[in-house]
Amino acid sequence: MALKTTGARSWIYLPLAILLTVSLFPFLWMATSSFKPLRQLYAVPPSWLPDPATFANFEKVIFNSNIPRYFLNSTIISLGSTALALCFAIFAAYGFARFRFRGKILAQSFVLIGQMLPTATIIVPLYFVLSYFGLINTYLGLILVYLILTLPLSVWMLTSYFKGIPRELEEAAIIDGASRLTILFRINLPLIIPGIVAVVLYSFVATWNEFVFALSFATDRSMKTLPIGLAEFSSEFDTDWGAVMAASFIMTLPIAIIFLALQRLFVGGVMSGATKG
Amino acid sequence: MTFDDFFPAALETATYQDKLYALPFQVEAHALVYNKGAFREAGLDPEKPPQTWDELVVAAQTLTKTTERGQQYGYGVAGGGQDQPGNTLFRTLPLMWMNGGGILSDDFTKVTLNQPESVAAVQFYADFYTKHAVAPPSTLENDGLALRRLFIAESIAMIQASQADFLLIKQGNPDLNLGVARLPHPKDRDPAVILGGWNFIVPAEAPNKAETLQFLQFLSSTENIAYYTNTSPARRSGFDQPQHQRPDLVGFKQMLDYARRQPPLPEWSQIVQIYYDHFQEVLLGTPAQEAMDAAAAEIQPLLEQ
Amino acid sequence: MARPLAPAAGNLADESRPARRAFRIGAGPLFILPTMALLAILILYPVVSTVILSFTDAAGRYVGGDNYAAAFRSSSTIRVIFNTIYYVAGSVILQLVIGVAAGILLNQKFRGRAMVRSLMLIPWVIPGIVAAMTWAWMFHTDYGIVNYALVSLGIIDQPVGWLTNPSTVMPALIAVNAWKMFPFVAVMVLAGLQSVPEELYEAARVDGAQFRHEVWHIMLPQLRPVLVAITLLLVIWGLDGITIIYSMTGGGPAGRSMIFPIQIYAMAFEFFEFNRAAALSVVYFLLIVGLIALYLRAFAPQEND
Questions:
Q1: What are the tens digits of pLDDT across the range B47-63?
Q2: Is residue C112 part of a domain?
């Protein structure tokens, strides 16, 4: 891998230290707070480390709250919507990247507008539509409305990736008489794996964090997603900051681990691997 | 069955256009909960909680001091947080009532929020934070729950709270010696409080209606209503049952006699939100009269819809 | 194959060539049809429906501009527009500045670079709601670590109510939003920097360029297409993001951090004024269309379609 720099510059360690502190401190503070008993949370000056550490906050979250259920709900909904969006987007993005046809600009503008449309502007009619079909407080309801977030984003990003593939690669196959679908799946898709990984990650993150739709369309305690569950956590389960931080910690840990594991693929694949010859 | 034994405000919540639609079951009302140990430390008599507004201010000032645990504040003011605008309403509307005011007139056609009685009550409550500084600096982020936590952590010595709060405080800090008293009122006037609670409703289209009504009849007997409630029974005679004889809870029971219901208007939640936004302005330093005038100007069109 | 496949590479695609004969007209629409149909149902219908709802009342009767008049009569609407623009513009600028700096920094060679790159992603990876709750706790007036640190360091004398003081609430929320999203910018900048040809740096170094010259004359110009694309994304996400504000302040104190999406939500699902919520939605939609049109006007010529 060709590096674009001459060598380590000594001055960069100061900004690096600041960058790391800013990035990490809130996470660490959340982690230590989650092990503190109430009296230590409300202490001035604050204690840096819990003394003694208590697991009461975690017990409360895992055994005496709905957070595990919310976690399951969020996982199902995010995975469902991400996968569904990817299926549709691969075709649409390929169509946009490789074909010229009448109305293409219009269609692309529509996708772009869909991408830009803030979700809050359409919650009222969506609520009516979902209740008409009995989809309020269902997984399917949220998976479908989350396509509003994931589908335009996926189409938009994948189109760029498809455009990055040289046409010459396809032309040889076309001369051999391969069908369009074969070209798409055999030639193009393997080349945009980094793009697909990125799209999946972005879609997943976008739906995992979605707030407005979840707030409006999943009001039942058995259907709420994690963001709403956590926002209402302290008033609903009558807890203090320690338990809120414990819930946050639990919510973050698996995601952080998955991401850090994937990150080799992510940073390696998307950021630098793409330049490999 | 007859309903003479039920708290009138509870019946009112179940009534629409003079017809009773629901069975009041549990009721609750806020009272003043205070830390007797803090009273003693500050040289106040823990058996003589403040009864009037003036006494409340003096007590809060005396209780605001640095203790060995850190800074202690006299009185908790609900000025923000998540459980809003309800928490602030439950703490300020009673003050307006006590003072002869309110947010709306009795027939719900006029805003009385900017009348002198109401404005004085709003200013009185905000002053704990803005003028007397006997409420913590975090007041604008504290809802009822946060105030309870701060009370448990012994950072606040007096709060307005419900019976449920009281039991959770005991659980959260068993070492505290708690007192419960009637909410302080203006001199020569009665206290007032908002009624909270739960009613049973049988929807018109529900199946097995006869059986359900029979069941509710069973539930509403004095013994059962007293036994199955986890706050207070909606009928007075329920308090004769042994589990409602706890002397430490008597302050909550006393408040039920002063309880009133919130106006049953479809626009009420919007009205409360408008009021709450302008109440926060008062906490931020706007004079109560000015803020409440602005709130009244926004609320009045809603009543005319 | 030496071409980068990052999204920024879109303008390298060679679309200006004439279509090949093998790709007959008609195939393209087939590929995009399923997606377009789905988007029509999910987006086009609700948008049209919102417009219709905004001109009717709860019973479906046409009421002209009444809902809009009600929206603009409320003094809060102007403030909401201002807050929304303030929040989005502030967030995006801060995200870009920090993100570009972090991206350039992490493109340098140093020991432990892979590790630092991973750790820097944490703010972006953790769910928005977690970031919001954690920062809300850190910003707590009485017990927050931010106030403690700043007071200890002598930067401020008194604890500041970061989320409750009208002059600090928006900057604090913007800072949280910037903290949350800057790693995304940094990642994209890193990807973009990978595609900068080494020859450019070498040529510059032959001319004796310093690091800051490389940043200013090579990196930033080369990053321009990436930045144009991600700015649009950041603006969109900023306009749509309510998690941080909803869960940290709920729009308070006294509406000082109220933004459009929360106002629409509250109007619809807290006050059940669906038609007025629809009118607000249309106003918000027009505001966004205006902003994006301005943006595209400024930057579209550089795009290749």
A1: 999 999 999 999 999 99
A2: yes
**What does the H/E/C string look like for B243-275?**
HHCCHHHHHHHHHHCCEECCCCCCCHHHHHHHH
**Number of C-beta neighbours around residue B209 at 10 A:** 12
Best interface-test mutation with A: which of C129, C152, C260 has the largest number of A CBs within 10 A? Answer: C129
Structural domain count, chain C:
1
In a domain, C160, yes or no: yes
Give the chain A residue whose CA is nearest to the CA of B149. Answer: A240
C142 touches chain B (CB under 8 A): yes
In angstroms, what CA-CA distances link C71 with B262, C278, C279?
26, 10, 7
- In chain A, the percentage of residues whose pLDDT exceeds 70 is 88
- Are A23 and C305 inside 8 Å of each other by CB? no
User: C181 is in which domain, residue-wise?
Assistant: 66-304
What are the backbone angles phi and psi of residue B134, rounded to the nearest 5°? Answer: -105, 5
Interchain contact, A44 vs B71, CB within 8 Å: yes
Q: Choose among A38, A44, A231: nearest Cβ to B70.
A: A44
> What does the pLDDT look like over A127-157, one tens digit per residue?
998 999 999 999 999 999 999 988 988 898 8
For the question of an ipTM over 0.95, the answer is no
Query: Rounded to whole angstroms, how far apart are CA atoms A16 and A24?
Result: 12
B153-209 confidence digits (pLDDT tens): 899 999 999 888 898 898 888 999 999 999 999 998 999 999 887 777 777 777 777
CB contact under 8 A, C122 and A95: no
pTM of the model: 0.81
At a CB cut-off of 8 Å and minimum separation 6, what does A24 contact?
A: C119, C122
* CATH code of the domain covering residue A142: 1.10.3720.10
Residue A235 counted as domain residue: yes
Give the closest residue to C225 by CA, choosing from C202, C191, C198. C191
Does residue A16 belong to any structural domain of this protein?
no
Residues in contact with B129: Cβ distance below 8 Å, sequence separation at least 6, in sequence order: B77, B79, B135, B139, B283
Asked if residue A31 is part of any domain, the answer here is no
Q: Is residue A4 part of a domain?
A: no
**Total residues found in chain C within this entry:** 305
Range of the domain at A130: 65-275
- For position C208, which CATH number holds? 1.10.3720.10
Total count of domains within chain A: 1
CB contact under 8 A, C143 and A103: no
Who contacts C134 (Cβ-Cβ below 8 Å, separation ≥6)? A26, A27, A29, A30, A245, A248
